Amino acid sequence: MSRPHARSVARLLPWTGSSDQPCYLLTDHTGDGPVSRYADRIEALQLRMSVGLLGHAEPIIDDPSADAGQLRFLSAQLRTALEDTVRVAESRGERLEEYRRAEEADDDDTGDAGNAGDVSDVDDADDSGASGASEEIGGGSGGDRTS
Questions:
Q1: Under 8 Å CB-to-CB from 42, ≥6 apart: which residues?
Q2: How far is Cα 70 from Cα 49, in angstroms, rounded to an integer?
């Protein structure tokens, strides 16, 4: 599979900065730089924690003796988990969109526009769920830069 053109790609990171501002990683690498790999691990951890929290939520919700404080605490934890999960989904969706645009541009350059938008190439990316299509985004040489 050909690499997309070398250009900077902004990746939404799975954490926020001061004042809950989103953090982005600018990379012209293939998505496997040290910050990208760290972000992949954080995303995977956040998703595992969200799944675990769901398992703990059901017994508390079903417990008629659960008091308002317990339910408020659970609600706050579920809200945080949902925010993390939505951020991961947005980041992966943006990377997938960038990957598809880069593939279309690459296909246009090679005159093979018939395969543009073919998602079968995405299946070649890491199936671990931690990095999705990010392995193919960016192209070129270089590394990660946060902003």
A1: 13, 14, 15
A2: 19
